[in-house]
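Practice set, problem 2.
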Amino acid sequence: MRKIKARSRFSRFRTMMGTRRLFATHRAKIRLRHWRRILVRRASPVSAFALGIWGGLALLACVSSAESAAETVDILLIGFALAVGALAISLSALTFGKDSSRAASLILAGALCGGLATAAAISRYQTQRALPGPAAPGSAMSLRALEGALAIDSQTTASGNRRLDLEVRAAEWEGKGCRVRAEWGRPAFSAEVLTGPIARTHAGTALRVAALRPGPFLWANREEVATIRRAGYLGAFRGALSERFAEDIRVCAGRAGPLAQALLLGVKDELDGEYRSLFQSAGCAHLLALSGQHLAIICAFAALLGNRISRNPKLVRRVSIGFAWVFVWLAGPGPSLLRALFMLSASEIARALDRPQSGFSVLALASALLALFAPSSINSLSSVFSFGAMAGLIGFSAKFSACFRPWLPKPVADALAASFAAVCATAPISILAFGTFVPAGILSATAAAPVMLAFMWIALGGSAVALIVPSIALVTQPALEFLEGALVSVLEMGAWFPSLAVGETALARFGVVAVIATLAALLYAVRRTRSRVAHARLEQARARLRPADAKSRLALLSARECSPPSDEM
């Protein structure tokens, strides 16, 4: 009898455990289906494509640091396989119907595979465009001269030298008693050459740089830089227009001319090195480089003028976007400017087609367009900072603003929330890349933003009026010099605070990044917890309220609304 009772107890226990496992498995399947529906409903194929691009580039960067460059053939094969897989998944998704959740999931998977394949193709393209080494392994040949056209205008470095980005069409190697010259019909690779302080050279100009000195970077004396061919008609017109605009800015800004040229044209030839170091110490180096923030300020200025002339908001928006295209063409297509330009254009096209998109979808489309039209700069540091800051603004700005509004006015709360959101996204990048972090940059950027807005608007309007009325400088020069002094005071206050040095070890950097990511995730956790608590309290209140009481209260409210107003005073 005892054995029978023990067996019955064991069978009941096993049945109970099996039932619990069954319920747990069923509950896990329900949660998986729930999250899959949320992902399918909120995610878009272009977001999955952009996620594949960035994830693939990060993975290939880790692989390339550990393996030799000869294995790029395997990367190309992986990309081809992913492209074929994406095509197969996309074709199979069409068999399930357009409204099926399974079809949407397969389309997202196909877009993700397509993004990974695009990342492999970008890596292969960048490998082919990289500067080649010696002519043969173990040979004594060294690179001595390069010939090619400038891809962008020559840039001034922090030390006052010039950086030349060449699209090389001819190269010369020199060894013991021999010299080898190679020429190509099209640009074979790209090269960055540093030289001494020379005159600003515009994009499209063909140069010959000789007597190169190899090392961490290519260096050439400024006497060895010779012009082979001037830029074409369009390049010459762009150069003349840029120089004319720079001269008008110099006239209307006075002593603040170098800062105005840097903020409006990206020309830093006359900007002092100590001034640049002040921006970096205050954590506001991004304010000095042309980015989407500068483009937004300029587009807002154009829209403000357009609203005074025309009452058609659609026309004003399109004219401001056209002005943005002209500005990017004039200042140079940097990654940050292209990102902002693609986002503005995509948003306007979606609005014209009556297909509004979320901020992340527009950002993903901009990253996909930048990967297709400028594959050599998609994973550059400036591009990563730009996309990271924009993702932080879209994801965290509203949540930080909701946290600050109970204690601060709305304009101050929104500005401070934007700075916090951008820092949350870019701080991990800065820590991993440089090992430093400037916490005071949050307050410095918030305080410097309105000053820079007023400075850029006055400089832009004054330079435009100076073409007709040069005497406008009597008004704009004192205003711009005063704003420059206010900006310097804000930067000096931010530079007074110490920066955070994380360290050189990868473990310390990843640890700090994990802490920042945890603090950012708390925003979502706190908000989700509050919403759940509020929902639970609402359900409890509904459960306590009996149906009869609900009907009587509803009847009482309707009777009060329908009763005529009283004549009693």
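Problem 2, part (b): a different protein.
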Amino acid sequence: MWKVLLCEDEPVVRAALVEQIPWEQAGFTLIAEADNGADALELIRSLQPDLVITDIVMPGLDGIELLQQARAFSEARFVMLTCMNEFEYVRLALEYGASGYLLKLSADEKALGEMLGKLDKELKEQSLHQGSREPFRFQQEYRELWERLLSGRDAATGREEAGYLHRLHELYPLAEVRVLLPACRKNAEMVEAQWKQALPSQCLLHRVDHSGVITFVVWMGSAAAPPLPQQEEPLQPEPGCAIVRRGGSSYLGLLELWRSALLELNSLWYEDGGAAGQEERAPGGQGTDPQPGGAEEQPQERTACIPAVGWSLSWSKEKRWMRCLEARDREGLRQLAGEIWREMRQAFVWFFQAEGMADRLLTLAAHVWDRADPPTVDAYAGAGGHIALKMRLEEQLDRFLEELYQSERTDTGREEINRVMEYVLLHLKEDISLRAMAHYVNLDERYLSTLFSKQTGGTFIYFLQQARVARAKSLLLETDLPIREIGEQTGFANENYFYRIFKRWTGETPAQFRKGKP
């Protein structure tokens, strides 16, 4: 309980405040009363209250002078009692560090309760940070928890010294962990603001960001504290924003709450989001908020799989990815992405590590394809599950390739011919015929052949061979791919045909061309 001294020179007002304020309910206890500033100053010196509620206008030592002199030996919070015509005094009191003020004649029970709730939170923060030069060093302890969680080490090996979170447990006996769903991260700021507004004043909200995962830890002053509400507009149609765990708030207990919530979310990820983003996920597996309790919730059956520790992409797969990028092999990239995604699923790697893999693969594509604008997290943000993330990756790769080929193509003045040329450049590896292209642009085959020659100055076969040889030349100069593989990547039916066409266009065989490169 926080200790309170009440100083008011009017007995009727003082008695009304004593009776009207819900002291115990708000976490305060009234330890002394005074009817003048001089007596109040001595009581502050001897009793060291946490909160002083004092009238501003009193004979002798007034409330502002009391505040100024008490500051020399007390860190007590001050709330000033005032009348309607005394706001100049209120302004001075606030400048000297008063926490707030109350109007004597209009302060009802609700206003008094809100003021005490605000002060309770301030006093708890002051107590936690007292003597510390780093008021937000709790983030370091959250990081330690995070690293321990990822390492897979037994929770029993956690820190034992009484750190910030240990002391926090003494003031807030219950914790709630909320891990934001990937699809809802774009609304993180809005969610945080709404939750802060909805929380009772006795609660404390911490936001923790690691590896792209946003976690909110709600510290509650009692087990009866109400849960955070489900979201209203404008977050629809995603009313459920987080996986929720509530239970004991010791340091190691918090680790288990966090681990359990992340494992639940990881399982939903590999169900391709399941119902994630559509309903609130509580420890019981239902769409309702968890019931408060004194012990940690047990992990659900779906969280039985434990993510592999230290999983990474093999060098052989990364090398294949680079080769597919260099060859602009769209289908090869898709096939390899499928293999990587299956491997991650089998290892049950953390969902944020899967997002990191998508980021790495896109970054490599941007580097090889010489993009001026590297991909950002927006390229895959909002993917609610493992398959959805792979689809986002493929969409981005397709967009990169289309933009790359668009920058290289010549506008012929006819949209149908432009589309044919773009298709050819995007699908050089495939078996491409004039008949298939006529069907693609919905034109007669003979008419397309005539129109293509008219708009480009050469036949369709001429353009197709030219494009394939040009791409083969780039691969011969820029990569160490085997010649046979380059022929396959550029759509030549066999190695002999590749040699013959390449020499017709360049006067050299592929091997001679590569040997003579600068």
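Answer key, part (b): Strands lie at 2-7, 28-34, 51-55, 77-82, 100-103, 174-180, 204-210, 213-220, 242-248. The mean pLDDT is 78.
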